Amino acid sequence: xxxxxxxxxxxxxxxxxxxxxxxxxxxxxxxxxxxxxxxxxxxxxxxxxxxxxxxxxxxxxxxxxxxxxxxxxxxxxxxxxxxxxxxxxxxxxxxxxxxxxxxxxxxxxxxxxxxxxxxxxxxxxxxxxxxxxxxxxxxxxxxxxxxxxxxxxxxxxxxxxxxxxxxxxxxxxxxxxxxxxxxxxxxxxxxxxxxxxxxxxxxxxxxxxxxxxxxxxxxxxxxxxxxxxxxxxxxxxxxxxxxxxxxxxxxxxxxxxxxxxxxxxxxxxxxxxxxxxxxxxxxxxxxxxxxxxxxx
Length: 296
Hints:
Order of helices and strands: HHHHHHHHHHH
């Protein structure tokens, strides 16, 4: 669907490139909790709330993508990408849009969260619970697997809850490395291209992981309550700066036009300087805004 059409060029292609893995990872995350929603067992309100929020986030990602795709259709300077092979993807885009709008109506019409705190297991606890249930399928090795999961729950999961932002950063670096290697090998990029794609992919994933994790409760309630002011400010700066990097890549031609840089002077160095300049400006603006808000 994304091979042909005006949405295969930037800035729309950047939205698609991030939205596809983000929506898939959110759906995979929900896969650890949906099987635990059974008629013959109590359903914690926290699990319901978290799954509903994740569903809304998935729909929001899909809607943002299709909106960008529809905006790209009438733009005249992208008509060169049209071909007969675009008809089928356009029909697919129409089907996806209708499905997304219908789903959005379903998830947004669901009952709202009741007042007060919600009790129940979090995402990680449900993942461990579901994994333990599946150990029964392993036969004699099931007891050993259950013991290993208990060790993971007491040692690994506990550290992840305490250092959720650091864990998100580690996942972002892994995501960036996979994207950079895949893209670099397919396109035959030089070393500078590998570095740039690694930075862009890692930054975009980190910003999404922290923002989505905060909304879904993946960062943990206690984690957010016990963070120092300096740590909170630093996290905000890193998230804002990381989010600005994919935006700078998506709108690089517009930025160059504003600065009077000829498009023919493209080079990896020009891209690097553009990304670093935008990131530095956003970091300083975030610090100023955060400082002024704290003074009120």
